[in-house]
Every structure is written in C-alpha cells, then in structure tokens.
Fold these 3 entries.
Entry 1:
Amino acid sequence: MKLIQSMPGMPNKVTEEEVDSFLENKLNIQLATIDEEGYPSIQPLWFLYDKESSKIFISTQKTTRKIHNLHKISDKIYFSIDDENFPYKGVKGRGIARILEDVDLNIPITEKIITKYLGTLDNPLAQMIMDNARKGIQVVIEITPNFFSAWDFGKAT
C-alpha cells in the first residue's frame, strides 16, 4: 500500500495499520466518477475493504449513473472516507475501477458489505439487495487504489 500523509506537518504520522483499521469502519465511501460533460459525479456508498489486496469493493445496481460513467467515460475514480466527528480523520485516494459482473463472485462480496452495515441478511433491504445480486442486477465495483492519503487530527499532539 502506498501511503501519503495528507498533512505532512503533523508531529505523528498515520500508519498503514491505522489506515487498515480505519477502513473497517461503517462510514460511507464518497466515490467520484467522471460524467459525459467531464464533471465529477459523487455518490455516497457502502464499501468493503480487503486489507490483503488493499482493494475496495462496492455493490450497486448495474443501471446506476456511476456504472454508466465507468463503462462509457473512464475507469479512473477518486474516493474519500472521512469521519466528520472531531478529531477529524480519514482516507482518500484515486485509482482504477473494474466492474465485476460474475454473479457467483459478487454474491459473497455483497453479503459481506450488507452484513458490515446492517449486521444481518435478515431484513427487507438486505433481502432485496441479495435478490438483485442473485439475478445479476447488482454488480460489484472493484477499486485498485494508486495510493491512500490519510489524515488524523488526533495525532496533532
């Protein structure tokens, strides 16, 4: 993992272990894709971070604007995950996104994302998303980050 300090003047650097731990949180990822007019299009989404590969996974319906942008415009993305509570901290970066359409691969990834955020697969929203995954309506975006840029104002002292 390439780690950049977002605030180079901080007395204590954010470590790779702290980034890995932070990316296990239940905050939303803000995903930016590029639209037809060249503007960023930003969407808040649930995500799953795999620290072994340093990849980020997002499950979404294949008819969404972000999927359209990734298919038709560019596979380049920017992302940010930040905690709005003081002391502020977060991780951002850019990378390449790949759309995974293999239902057998997407089902376990989607299950992990739902379980992370809802704690169960036994609720109506979880069941709807899983039904969409089984039907191939739901796809997974696999993000390979070029770098992580991290900050933590709690490390200022």
Entry 2:
Amino acid sequence: MNKQGLLYMLRDAREGIVRNLGAAAAAAVLIFAAMFISGALLLVRFGMGDLMGYLESQVAMKLYVDPAVDSKAIATILVGKSFVKSVELETKEQLLDRLAPFFAGRGHLLISFQESDIPDAIRLELVDHSQIRLIAEELGALQGITKVVYPQQFAQTVLYWSKQINQYGIFSLISLLVLSFGMVFIAINLALYQRQKEIRVRLLLGANPLHVRGQFLFEGWLIGFIGSLVAALVVYVLFVSALLPLQQQFPFIFHFSMNVVYEMMGGIALGGSLIGLAASYASTRKLIDHA
C-alpha cells in the first residue's frame, strides 16, 4: 500500500470513528478495561509467584511456649532432634529489645508490652523444609507448646487469595472481552449502515470488496489498538509506581524483569488490536457482500 492509500485509510477511519464517536469510545473503553485487567492479573501473578517461592524456601518456624513451662528446657530437647538444623531461644526481654526502636517517643506503649504476658519463642530451622507441615503438627501437640507458626501457613493464605483474585479477575476479563467485542461490532455496523449508499456506489464502480472491507477492518483495528495501547501504558505506570519500588525494597523476594514487562505490554496492545479486528471482520463479513 502506497502512502496516499494509507493516508486515505487513516482519514476514512477517523471520519468513521467521529461519526459514531459514542459507540467507538465505549468500545475503546471496554477494550482498555479488559486489557488493563489482563495486565494487572499478570503483574499480580508475577508478584505472587516470587512471594510464594520465597516463602516455600524458608525452613524456619517459631514455637510459642507456655509461660508456666521452662522454655530453655524445651529448646535443649529440640537441639538433639534429627530434623532440627538450629535452635534459637527468643525471650520476652529479647523481643522487647528488638521492638524498642519502633517505640521511640512512645514509651508508654512499650511499657504496656512489658507488662503483658508475652510468651517466650523458640525459633527452629529445619533440615528438610518439605516436612515442615508434619513437623509443625507434631510439635504443636506437645505439652507446653501453645502455638506453632511457620511461613508456609502464610503461603497458604497468599495462595488462597491469589486464587480468588484470579478467579474473579478472569470472570471480569471474559465479560469485558465479550462486551468490547460486541461494542466494536456495533460501532462498525453503524458505520456500514450510514455509508451503505457510498459502499454500493464504490462496488458498482469496480472497487474490490476486499479493499472496501479493509477500510472498516482498519477502523475496528484502530479502536482496539487505541484502547489497548492506553491499557499497556497504564499497566507500565502501575508496575513502575507500585511493583518496582517493592522490588527495590525487597530484592531478596521479588525479581521482576523489565523485558517481561515490555513483552506483556506488547501482548496487551496486540490482544486489543485483535479484538477490534475480529469484531470488525465479523461485522463486515455479510453486509459488504450483500451491499
């Protein structure tokens, strides 16, 4: 296609969009929403994947000891267990010493903690973290152990909410994809009906039906591209403003790749463009043939 032909298609698409600005804008907004949700879900999946990997790699657990029981004696017993790699006793005083910097200028709050019944804790690092759940259940049943906490418990909670986000997010995404497809279909249909006489004249004068259809396909593609391009840019802003600082603060947990983000942005723009193209193709498939 030469330069003049491309300029003509651009002008024709712009005029078609302006004629049906409401429908075209609604279609672009729906495509934007669908593509933004898909990008946001991918970012959440990347973050959750890194977080889950970090939590699964942790082998430490904490045992909270009944104040009426000698925590040092329990720690001594655990040292001799084959599944234990290391044991560290954390008393109430040690915990408060660690918390003291957070109470600078608020000494009354620190005093309230000092007067509370905070139990001693025993931190265990295991030899084989794959058995952590079974070991936690066994240790939790021991007399004198009031509670057992380990990272995988939090990982299970993270996994549950991650599944919930994906489930409802995918449902919303599918709904928006269907709606955006329908809106582009309607917008192109309106353009076809408004220009039906012009289309007939052009076909009678020998214009190639594929070329005539191509102009409307281009219009649908342009609607999809604009909506998805804005979505890709917003996803990038979300990544830079929220996830990138998180990675900088916790580099040992999160490992985002800019190349993956750029590829995702390209995929978002491509996906939205294909929605617009497919909807416009479906809209023009019969109308131009019977014009």
Entry 3:
Amino acid sequence: MKTINRYIALFSLVGALGLTTSCSKEDSLGESRLKVTPEEKSALDNWIDDNYTYPYNMAVFYRWDPAKVNMDRYLTPIAIEKVQPTLKVIDKIWLESYETIAGNQFVKRTAPRELVMVGSANLNKTATVTLGLAEQGVRISLFQINSLNLKNKAEVEKFIHTIQHEYVHILNQAEPFDESEYGKLTAADYRADWNNSSDDEARSLGFISAYAQSNAVEDFAEQASWMLKDIVAYNKLVDESPASGRALIRQKEALVVAYYKRAFDIDFYELCNLTTANTEEAIKL
C-alpha cells in the first residue's frame, strides 16, 4: 500500500504541475522536434518497389536496422553498391523461376514478407557460418553479401542455395511434408555434431550434404535446395556417390518431388531445370 500511495502522490504532484504549466500564457512549448515528414525515397528504393514490393509483396531491408539482426553477433551493413546487383540475381534465379512455373500469385502468397540483406558473415561459436535464416515464415535474412562475387558461378550457386534452402522451410510451414516418412530413411544417422562430418561421408550414408545430417527438417531443405542449385551437377554428384548412399538419396529425391506436386502442383524437375538455366543467365547480368 505504501508503494501505491507514493505513486499516487507523485502522479498528483506531476499532474498539478502539468496543469499549472499548461495554463500559463507566457510559457512557450516551442516547435515540435518530431520528424513528421517522410524520408524521400532514393532511386534504389523506387527500383525495389517496382521489382520486389509491388510484384512480390516483399519489403527489402538494406539500411542498417538493429531490430532486424541478432545484436549478439558482430555484423555489418551491406555496401550500397551491392544491393541492386544482388537483388537482380536473386530475382532472376529464385523469384522469376518460381513465378514462371507456379505463377505470380503463388510467389506473392508464399514468399517471405521481408528480405534482410547483411554485408558481413554471421559466425557461430561452433566454427560454422550461418549463411541465411528463415524466421517464422515472414523473413529471410542473408549474410556475407559484401564479399559475394556475382560473376562467379560457384559463389552465386552457393548464395542462392542458401535462399532456396530457407524458402523450402517457409513452404514447409505453409504445407508440411511427412517428416516421419522422410526421416525414417536415415533415422539412425542424424547427428547434432554434423559439422564434424564431411559431405562425402554424409553422402555415403544417404545425405546430400553434411548439414543434412542435423535433422529431418534440414535434410529435406538441403535435398530440395541442392537439386535447385544445379540439377545437372546434382545428378552427377549422386551418380558418383557410394551405392548405399546413392539409393537413399534417390528415395529422398522422390519424396521431395512428390511433395511439391501434392502440396503446390509444381513439377519439381521442371523448376530445377529452370533455376539451373537462370543461374547461367544471372551471372551475365
């Protein structure tokens, strides 16, 4: 009760003082310091509106905003000159491919509402690097863009693979895949310390990459995104994998293809062929 009384007394005093001040004709409140005029959009902002916001209902964040990143990490903004060229590559390989196969409304409905671009790498304490994040189905964050060579096919494929992987997670949230059926194929070989395994070791066990060993959800996203990265290179990689692992990877491939057809009526092989072709076009932009 004492604490409440003190609050009431203080409120009464402040109220009385405020009333006295507001009734004085001599005192001036001065000009408001609130910034009410909207910031004028730059040419880049207008380009983003025309190429992302309006067609895909997606906001792009490239200016530094602490609320959009993990402040426990040492992260730096994207260089302004990297923004538009990177967005053109993302659009060509990821968004345009899905739009061609599934339609504009599909992309508008399923694409994240926010795309956050960060210049530096997102380093983890486990000596691994987080290349991208999908957050609650509404945001994809991309890292390490400042060092990305947009004319280097291998680097572009690795970068877009990150986006494709995170987008698979978002699609899985909209339409879940059968995690139990998928996971039982290699249930005994999932491991928390996946980073201690090599890609070759993982493939001998039926995983397309070491990271796919972390759990069934990541395994599914890796399987799909490796196919989307370059379907020709993927097939060559699988064909050259040990027989035991090759059979399991092909079974997982079949489940991914069936999921896309059932959930979204998408011919996944057709989508993979298009993303592979669009990658060749993107590095020429």
